[in-house]
Amino acid sequence: MREDRLMREVVQSAKQQIRKKYPFHSYELEEKVMKQVQKQTRMPKWSIVAWPIGIAVSALLFFHVANPNNFVSGIVDKIGTVQAPEKFEWIEPDKGFSHALQNGYPTLPSVKKEVNGYTVEIKDVMVDQLRITYTMLVSGEKVEQLVKEALATGKDLKQYPHLIFYQDDYSLSSDIDVNIRGGSGRAELKLINGSHYLVFTGNYNLSENKNEWDTMDSMETILKQPNPVLDVKFFKKPFHDRVIDEEAVLAEIPLPLPKDVATARKNIQPATMNKPQLGDQEVLQGLAVKQVQLFPTVMRVQVQAQTKAGYTLRNLINPRLVDDQGKEYTSLEPTSLQNRNSGTATAEDYYLDMIPSLYFDAIPEKLALKFDGATISTMTTGSFRLELHGKFPIEAPFGNKSSQILNAYYENHKLHVVLPGEAMTEETQLKVDGVGYDSEITQNGTFIQTYPVPQKEVYQIDTQRADHQEIRMDGLVPILDGK
Question: Where are the transmembrane segments (predicted)?
Fold first, then answer.
């Protein structure tokens, strides 16, 4: 037993040394190693101890020379398991990230860099093609100076620690150089062992593709590069300008991405003869699951919907996947249904992101999409005439309701239409003489849209408004029916 214990300790030590230097993962090598370990069990125990040391060193040298970007993240131990961290150090992960971690999906190694008086460390990084979570710790001389200056100006950092992130004309922030579709981030000030730390945590959903107006690359584009890298930035974000120039970037940390990220994906193709159950309503006329894509931290359910003419599906109420054991996989986001903008005249394509993922699990015999109803919208149109020098405010028809136009004036070759601040939350589109707005401005509680049209006395205003309704039903769409 002492020899077995010694062997486990030696192998674990070898794995730890490799992980410190190389974040990459090779399932093929691990399988070969495991087979070799099983063959060697007939050897004397001290030979078994010596063999893992040799294979660890050989693998270290071979993969470093042959392909440093596809290096093994760990050598399997005697029973063939990969030692992954048991938990995240700085975050409370959702079911998607925690399930991936429990099943051996690795976090990337910590990266530390000292630059411009800051010590920046990136930890708790887990990433796949659709999601990323990370923690950035910023400390050092410059942080201590910021705290000292904040206290000197009377800021109560004990009660309001977030004030440290807001300076006179900028805020301190963290971001990643990839197109983000959703998620959230937070920033905290922590005192650890006598030193102050700015702690940024991010939990983001990544865009599948890049649109023409996106300034960042999509994850798909990044992963196609020979040596894919994600840059994590610590920067000063100006209050008056959304553009971040090079001087505003205080530190930039490159994170090399393992090749596994680009290949970690499986698919479930629906196999069912059963029809969807959509209740007695007549608006949502058809719903089908076209494919379920499995990634380590999330499942993407591709859905196609058919609605009555003039109606559009906006969301499903409480959607979840349910297997034959009654286990539920829930929606990642409250606004769960995302339109893929690829619909036809009779059908629209959507997707749902669900957690935890079946990526690591046996595919169940039965699987279905269930939901408690749907949100449907219709578009209502209207029109009116706007007199540039008429009396304001005026009541104007916005779809099936009315709203005010507080003022209108012509300036800098554009018509400015001043609306109440609550108009920002209205799903109403205005067109002036057939032209849509080109900019939006908030000012003193009002909302201003500008239209690049010629100056004249009277304008034709066309409105289009989305009106929503909820339709309750016990919805069920079969995916796998076990037949």
Answer: 48-66
Q: Take residue 460 and report the two structure tokens written for it.
A: 């034709």
Distance CA 85, CA 102 (A): 8
- What CATH code is assigned to 389-456? 2.40.30
| 266-378+470-481: CATH class | mainly beta
d(CA 190, CA 397): 52
Domain boundaries, the chain: 2-70, 95-263, 266-378+470-481, 389-456
| Sequential pLDDT tens for the chain (483 residues) | 344 444 444 444 444 444 443 333 333 444 444 444 444 433 333 333 333 434 443 443 333 333 333 333 332 333 233 344 567 989 899 999 999 999 999 999 999 999 989 999 999 999 999 999 999 999 999 999 999 999 998 888 888 888 899 887 788 999 898 888 888 889 999 999 999 999 999 999 998 766 655 567 888 889 999 999 999 999 988 775 555 555 689 999 999 999 889 999 999 999 988 899 999 999 999 999 999 999 999 999 999 999 999 899 999 999 999 999 999 999 988 666 877 654 444 568 999 999 999 999 999 999 999 999 999 988 888 889 999 999 999 988 876 677 889 999 999 999 999 988 776 556 678 899 999 998 888 777 888 999 999 999 999 999 888 888 899 999 999 999 986
Nearest-angstrom CA–CA distance, 367 and 322: 6
Please tell me the class of the 95-263 domain. mainly beta
Structure tokens at 204: 């983001």
Fold equal for 95-263 and 266-378+470-481: yes
Terminal CA-to-CA distance of the chain, rounded, Å? 49
